[in-house]
Specification:
By secondary structure, the protein is an alpha/beta fold. The chain has 15 helices and 16 strands. The strands form three sheets. An eight-stranded mixed β-sheet has the order 3-4-2-1-7-8-9-10, sandwiched between helices. Helix 3 packs parallel to helix 4, helix 6 crosses helix 9 and helix 7 runs parallel beside helix 8.
Length: 424
């Protein structure tokens, strides 16, 4: 499960036409969309023609636009079920984009039309190689409807994984634990996620501390969506426990809290817990990358209290480490990797407020023990290396697929191929 080596300087660079598909893209914010956007923009910056096919998840978004050199095509959403977006015209929009693409880069899990029908169209009909980045095993809250949805998502995700030429996992740790990824060892490629974070602005970080810790309060940071799998309720319960040792503690929360797709029930569940937290709860909203860097630098520690395998890594951990702030994370496959790889933090069992509080105290009281130089973290999680490894994988698959595409085209010209109703 190792990634291909980046091409040498002597190899002629090939500009690829890459179609990236996923249900939600910018301005939606989640770990999956951040990964996809960084990869798309990183490849576009290297001269590749990158198109993203996604949902028009808000009516005010344009159907087409260019973001940081990436062409974004959005398909109308007919209706939703939970976080899922149903797009009846998805395949019609995909067909012309597939015809001009050299390769399809899928993101799993996702909506059924993309998960199965699109890779069939890409691989079987048009002979395009398909790479699927597998972000997580989706685990929904308990309930009959969610069990039905979860079963359907697993079924179509397994079908998409079967059709993909390669499956990319963030870490070997998560790949070994995932019930779906374990089924496809021959297809697995491990490529760490692309993590990019600007240098913090010391003045902005100091201003945040003056505002939210005027009396020397301990600032605990958390950067995520207010979603059930993030375990924010356990972190809120940990704060008064940590205060017994540390004195006053405030939780600075960077992320969407009000309009999180499919999380209305969790938001209502959290309301009394947030009310009980009182002054400890400080929602900052969605921050820009530069604001986020200063936020991380202002915090004494950041926490990722995720509770299940819907979290497979936690980009925010590495972002925090790049800004010099250690992390407390939960002992989950993939999630524990950044702390173990860098030594910049502590891992604790999920759903354990007492363990979270004890770890926060330990990191704050012995902070210098956990801090590592930015360059050391950047060597372990290199943005450039991640883009190069995807680039090498894409080039390899495009190169090996071309003879098959050419043969299919010649066969279609003789009246025996899939383009004119013949059989193969």
């Amino acid at each position: 499960m190792s990634a291909p080596e980046p091409p040498t300087a002597a190899e002629a660079p090939e500009r690829l036409r890459i179609l990236v598909t996923l249900a939600y893209y910018a301005p939606h914010v989640s770990g999956l969309t951040i990964h996809a956007r960084r990869l798309a923009e990183g490849l576009a910056a290297r001269g590749h023609r990158v198109t993203v096919l996604t949902s028009r998840h808000r009516p005010d978004l344009p159907a087409r636009e260019t973001l940081a050199g990436v062409e974004v095509v959005r398909v109308t959403v007919a209706w939703r079920f939970g976080k899922g977006a149903v797009m009846p015209t998805y395949l019609a929009a995909a067909l012309p984009l597939l015809r001009r693409a050299d390769l399809v880069a899928m993101n799993l899990p996702t909506v059924p039309s993309e998960s199965v029908l699109l890779p069939i169209l890409a691989r079987v009909v048009l002979r395009r190689p398909v790479v699927a980045t597998y972000h997580c095993d989706l685990q929904l809250p308990e309930g009959p409807f969610n069990r039905l949805v979860g079963s359907a998502v697993r079924l179509v995700t397994r079908g998409a994984a079967t059709l993909a030429h390669r499956l990319v996992a963030y870490t070997e740790d998560y790949a070994r634990a995932s019930p779906i990824l374990r089924r496809f060892p021959a297809k697995l490629v491990v490529i760490p996620p692309p993590v990019a974070m600007p240098l913090p602005d010391p003045a902005a970080a100091a201003a945040l501390r003056r505002r939210w810790a005027p009396g020397g309060e301990v600032l605990v940071g958390c950067a995520c969506r207010l979603a059930r799998e993030k375990g924010v309720d356990h972190l809120l319960r940990a704060l008064p426990l940590a205060e017994r040792t540390l004195g006053p503690v405030r939780l600075l929360f960077a992320g969407e809290t009000e309009q999180v797709l499919g999380e209305g029930q969790y938001r209502r569940f959290l309301e009394p817990i947030i009310a009980a937290a009182g002054h400890r709860w400080v929602p900052l909203g969605v921050l820009s990358p530069q604001e986020l860097a200063s936020f991380y630098a202002a915090c004494d520690v950041t926490v990722l209290p995720s509770v299940n395998m819907t979290e497979s890594f936690g980009l925010v951990q590495v972002e925090s480490m790049l800004c010099g702030t250690p992390v407390v994370a939960t002992e989950l496959p993939g999630v524990r990797v950044p702390v173990r790889a860098t030594g910049m933090g502590v891992v604790v069992p999920p759903r354990d407020a007492e363990a979270l509080a004890a770890a926060i105290v330990r990191v704050v009281q012995h902070r210098s023990h956990f801090v590592r130089p930015r360059a050391e973290v950047a060597r372990i999680f290199s943005f450039a290396d991640t883009i190069s490894r995807y680039e090498a994988l894409f080039r390899e698959l495009v190169r090996t697929s071309r003879p098959l595409r050419q043969a299919a085209t010649r066969s279609a010209g003789r009246g025996t191929g899939p383009y004119n109703g013949g059989s193969r």
